[in-house]
Specification:
The protein is of the alpha+beta class. Helix content is about 25%, strand content about 20%.
């Protein structure tokens, strides 16, 4: 694995959030896998030619319903019934 230039705190927060969300979505149990590998730029990504590291998450859960998948990037969107937007939102 090659060394990378990254804000370690931001990467840690992103990985932690992805792992916790994946774990919470596995209501009937299951597994979450994290993989990192050396990679080149994807031609469609518009990235300059350079070496990259690709981090992927995989789980063996059932997935999310199509109508909910359309909303996953909305601020404060959750499928947890008890969650609510922070007071400052």
């Amino acid at each position: 694995m090659r060394p990378v230039f990254v804000n370690a705190s931001e990467l840690e927060l992103a990985v932690l959030n992805l792992a916790l969300n994946a774990r919470d979505a596995l209501t009937a149990g299951g597994h979450v896998w994290l993989h990192a590998r050396d990679a080149g730029p994807d031609d469609s990504a518009g990235l300059p030619p350079a070496p990259y590291v690709l981090i992927t998450f995989t789980d063996d859960g059932s997935g999310i319903e199509a109508e909910l998948a359309e909303r996953v990037f909305e601020p404060f969107f959750t499928t947890n019934g008890s969650a609510r937007a922070p007071a400052w939102a």
